[in-house]
Amino acid sequence: MKKVLFTICAAAIALAFTGCKEEEQSKLDLNALKGTTLVKGTVYYTVADKDGDYEIKAASGKNVYLNLIYNGEVVKTLGPVTTNSRGEYTFDKLPCNENIGVSVEAYVSFEEENYDYDFDKGKWVLKNFLFQGLEDGSLTPNWEAILDIYLNSGSLVNPLDEILM
Question: How far, in Å, are 17, 52, 126, 162 from residue 118 at the CA level?
Answer without folding.
Answer: 60, 11, 9, 21
